[in-house]
TrEMBL record:
Keywords carried by this UniProt record: Transferase
InterPro entries given in the database record: Mannose-1P_guanyltransferase, NTP_transferase_dom, Nucleotide-diphossugar_trans
Source species, domain of life: Bacteria
Organism lineage string: Bacteria, Bacillati, Actinomycetota, Actinomycetes, Kitasatosporales
Coiled coil regions, renumbered to chain: none
Gene Ontology molecular-function annotations: transferase activity
Gene3D superfamilies: Spore Coat Polysaccharide Biosynthesis Protein SpsA, Chain A (3.90.550.10)
Protein name: Guanyltransferase
PANTHER family reported in the protein's UniProt record: SUGAR-1-PHOSPHATE GUANYL TRANSFERASE
Domain annotation Nucleotidyl transferase: ranges: 13-239
Pfam family, one: NTP_transferase
Length: 243
């Protein structure tokens, strides 16, 4: 039996892959951030993302390139891809919101919803469930929310200031934007031509109760690959998960 929300689940997505990745040097000296390989997998971050999107019902992807775009385009041209991919390159910096709008203009179905993900996110969870959550809340935009582990040991104290416990790398008490999104078709018209949508479009939608937050399911794998340490941690975690 078909799920009642199946028709509103996106089949198209944007990957924002234009970042400099300066904190990942020397890995990013000769390639953009999404082309960095997770050690032990032999596949760049964007390869994992495209496989995940395909598993979740996506057929068409627009990759927004910037820094060392030709390295990414060459890999996409030579790889066996599970989805149809088109690349776009900003000729001038448009900011995050402008870049998203520019990429979205190249989606094959502008009148249908779409996913977006930052090019440095390595995750696995049900995008279909997130799309259903988005539809059920009548949202214009939905953000995936993660609770990353704090990289330090935490300390618990009692009311008198005595330390009662040490907790190694506990999950954050705050949820953060996990860099994965579901957007309704009208979202594109609300994006700035240039500038940052997180300072303009998102706050406006939040005031209208049209911005939803989808908490990542318990146990879902999520990591932003931002530094060399993130790469080694991801490799360790994936080995432990048997992936």
């Amino acid at each position: 039996m078909t799920h009642p929300n199946a028709a509103s689940r996106p089949t198209q997505a944007v990957i924002l892959a234009g970042g400099q990745g300066s904190r990942l040097r020397p890995y990013t000296d000769d390639r953009p951030k999404p082309m960095v390989e997770i050690p032990g997998t032999g596949i760049p971050i964007i390869g994992h993302q495209l496989a995940w999107l395909a598993e979740e019902g996506v057929t068409d992807v627009v990759v927004s390139c910037g820094h060392l775009a030709e390295v990414l385009q060459d890999w996409l041209d030579s790889a066996q891809l599970p989805v149809s991919v088109r690349t776009v390159v900003e000729t001038e910096p448009l900011g995050r919101g402008g870049g998203l709008k520019f990429a979205a203009a190249h989606l094959p179905h502008p009148d249908r919803p779409w996913y977006a993900t930052n090019g440095d996110i390595w995750t696995r969870f049900s995008l279909r469930d997130m799309a259903d959550f988005h539809t059920e809340r009548d949202a214009v935009a939905t953000l995936a929310l993660a609770r990353p582990r704090i990289p330090w040991g935490a300390v618990r104290t009692d009311g008198f200031g005595h330390i009662t416990d040490f907790i190694e790398a506990p999950p954050s008490t705050f949820e953060i934007n996990a860099g994965v999104y579901v957007f309704s078709p009208e979202f594109t018209t609300l994006l700035p031509e240039r500038g940052d949508h997180e300072r303009t479009t998102f706050p406006g939608l939040a005031r209208e109760r049209k911005l939803a937050g989808f908490p990542l399911p318990q146990g879902a794998y999520w990591r932003a690959i931002d530094t060399a340490k993130d790469l080694t941690e991801a490799a360790k975690e994936l080995a432990a998960l048997g992936r």
